[in-house]
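Figure 6 in text form: structure in, sequence out.
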C-alpha cells in the first residue's frame, strides 16, 4: 500500500526538511497544501524546494483548485517540475474550499473542473498522476471519468466510502475507461504519547475535526451515511464556519465552539474525522478500514495537540507502526 503524508508545516524551508524526513521513513509522497493564503506560502515554490531536497519521494499539491489558479498555471508548473525531476510531481486538485472561501471566492462547479482537467491532460506530461478529491456523488462521478487516482474525503466510515468507490468505478466503466482507478482516502491522524488524556486531546482537536467535516457535508448528505437527525443542525452550524481559522487546534479556534451545546455531535464528528491514539492503535484502525473497503493508499494529515504539539514528531512513530502496510 502506498502511504503519503500531508505536510503540517507552512514555510518552504520547513516543508523541505519535512520531505527529507518523510522520504527517509519510506512514505510514498508528500502533499503540500494550497489553501488559506493568509496562513500558507505558495504551493509551487514550496513543492520545488521539496523535490530539490529529496531523491525519490513524490511531492505535489494537496489540494489545489482552478479558481485561485487558472488551469494554465497548473499545466506550466507541472511541465517545469516534471522536467526538473521526471516522475516526482503529482497534481492533487478539487473544486476549492478554504483557499477560495477565505478570499471571498466560490468553488468551481464539478462540470468546470472536469472540463479543466481535460485541458490539463493535453497540456502537461501524461504520466503525472492526477488525484481528485471529492466527498459526494457528483464528485465521485467526475473522479471516475477523469482522475488517475480518487481521493475520497469521507472520514472513517466504511459505508460512505463503499458508496463513493462504487459510484466512481461505475462512472469510469460507463465512460469506457479501462485503466484502473487508484482508490485513496485522506485521514487526519494524531499520535499521542503513552499516558495522554485522550478525552483532553479530543476536546483540543474539535476545531480541527470540524474543518474536513464541513467540507464533506457542505453540499449534500446523499450517500454519506450521516444520521438523519443530525443533518439539519450540521448544515446550520457549518454555515457559520470560520475559514480563516481552518485547521487550528485549541480553544482559540472559534470553530471549536460550533457544537459545544451538542456533545453527542462533537463525539460523532471527532470519531469520524480523526484517528487518535498510540501509533499502534492508529495503525490498526487504518489497516482495518483499508482492508474493509479495498484501499490502494492513504494520505495522512498529521495534527498536533496539547500533549503532542509538534505534528512533525509524529512522523517516525506512525511510519514505524505502518511499516507492514507500506510498499
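Output sequence:
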Amino acid at each position: 500500500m502506498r502511504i503519503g503524508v500531508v505536510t503540517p508545516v507552512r514555510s518552504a524551508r520547513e516543508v523541505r526538511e519535512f520531505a527529507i524526513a518523510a522520504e527517509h521513513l519510506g512514505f510514498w509522497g508528500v502533499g503540500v497544501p494550497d489553501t488559506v493564503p493568509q496562513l500558507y506560502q505558495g504551493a509551487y515554490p514550496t513543492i520545488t524546494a521539496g523535490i530539490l531536497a529529496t531523491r525519490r519521494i513524490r511531492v505535489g499539491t494537496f489540494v489545489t483548485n482552478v479558481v485561485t489558479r487558472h488551469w494554465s498555471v497548473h499545466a506550466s508548473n507541472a511541465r517545469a517540475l516534471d522536467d526538473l525531476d521526471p516522475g516526482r510531481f503529482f497534481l492533487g486538485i478539487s473544486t476549492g474550499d478554504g483557499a477560495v472561501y477565505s478570499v471571498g471566492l466560490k468553488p468551481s462547479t464539478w462540470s468546470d473542473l472536469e472540463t479543466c482537467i481535460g485541458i490539463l491532460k493535453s497540456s502537461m506530461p501524461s504520466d503525472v498522476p492526477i488525484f481528485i478529491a471529492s466527498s459526494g456523488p457528483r464528485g465521485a462521478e467526475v473522479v471516475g471519468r477523469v482522475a488517475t487516482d480518487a481521493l475520497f474525503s469521507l472520514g472513517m466510515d466504511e459505508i460512505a466510502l463503499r458508496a463513493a468507490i462504487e459510484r466512481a468505478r461505475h462512472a469510469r466503466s460507463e465512460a469506457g475507461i479501462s485503466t484502473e482507478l487508484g482508490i485513496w482516502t485522506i485521514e487526519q491522524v494524531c499520535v499521542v504519547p503513552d499516558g495522554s488524556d485522550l478525552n483532553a486531546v479530543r476536546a483540543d482537536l474539535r476545531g480541527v475535526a470540524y474543518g474536513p467535516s464541513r467540507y464533506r457535508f457542505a453540499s449534500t448528505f446523499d450517500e454519506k451515511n450521516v444520521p438523519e437527525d443530525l443533518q439539519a443542525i450540521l448544515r446550520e452550524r457549518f454555515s457559520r464556519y470560520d475559514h480563516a481559522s481552518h485547521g487550528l487546534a485549541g480553544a482559540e479556534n472559534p470553530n471549536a465552539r460550533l457544537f459545544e451545546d451538542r456533545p453527542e455531535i462533537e463525539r460523532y464528528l471527532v470519531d469520524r474525522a480523526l484517528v487518535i491514539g498510540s501509533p499502534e492503535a492508529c495503525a490498526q484502525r487504518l489497516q482495518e478500514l483499508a482492508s474493509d473497503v479495498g484501499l490502494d493508499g492513504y494520505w495522512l494529515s498529521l495534527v498536533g495537540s496539547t500533549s503532542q504539539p509538534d505534528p512533525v514528531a509524529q512522523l517516525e512513530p506512525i511510519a514505524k507502526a505502518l511499516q507492514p502496510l507500506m510498499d
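Caption detail: The chain has one domain: 2-322.
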